[in-house]
Amino acid sequence: MNASHVSTHRLLAFTTPENYAVRLSPLIHLKGWTPLWCPTVAVEPTTHTKSSLLHYLSPPIPQINQFSALAFTSRTGISAFSDALSELNSPPLSPFGDEFTISALGKDAELIDNSFVGRICTNSDRIRVLIPKVPTPAVLVEALGFGGGRTVLCPVPVVVGLEEPSVVPNFLRELNAKGWVAVRVDAYETRWMGAECAAALLRGDGGCGVDAVVFTSTGEVEGVLKSLRAMGVDWGAVMRRNPGMVVAAHGPVTAAGAEGLGVCVNVVGSKFGSFDGVVDALAHFWND
Fold first, then answer.
1. What is the DSSP letter of 65?
2. β strands within 133-237, DSSP E
3. Which end of the chain is more exposed for a tag (fewer CB within 10 A), N or C?
4. First to last CA, the chain
5. Are 160 and 191 spatial neighbours (Cβ–Cβ below 8 Å)?
């Protein structure tokens, strides 16, 4: 254990967008640590993204009826889809036809409840909800099985102000490789928060250094690095400002993305269906 972390009064920075911050911050508090929120990306639906979703959902004959599956890779995608459904007067998917699969990852799947399903199709027996045991896009592809030329609608983010991380392109490519015709739809916007968004990692909180930083997506890491470049420094400056700072990733997909961008990751959450996993992994790291 690093000597600088003997005290339990630890300052944890996290870079999640607001909709995830409200879930992660209380978990940090529960460990007796102090959260420092420094969001580097914002995620939210826009007029454009809602219109893109409604293109597949609107009458007279909603195009979603040409699909066999709906594949969500994020909680925000499900929320945005739900918002678009609320614009409709009736469920867009016909109650008649072959099985229709709705898939989601980990804790995100709690949003795929009876109300959500009922707003897609009046015949719930037609709907199969698929939640892979390991909440990663790659395992979701395996769980969906061979597509056989069937189509799957993928509500994913449009990235603004940053290079798009490889997660979504890889997901779509893997679906196509498994015989699916993957159709991408812009469900919400992921937008860089600007040149100063990583400043808190350099100044800490009241002069105190940051003990750990938690990343929950590759986009957040890219947002930090772009901010640092705009301020004329690099990731090394953050590490020098915060000696012994631990870098934690929510799961292996985020860890791989961070490493690919040159950010060394010390802790990876092994139970990444929810944010409890990375917080518990940090506690375990410090208690060893």
1. G
2. 151-160, 181-192, 212-215
3. C
4. 7
5. yes
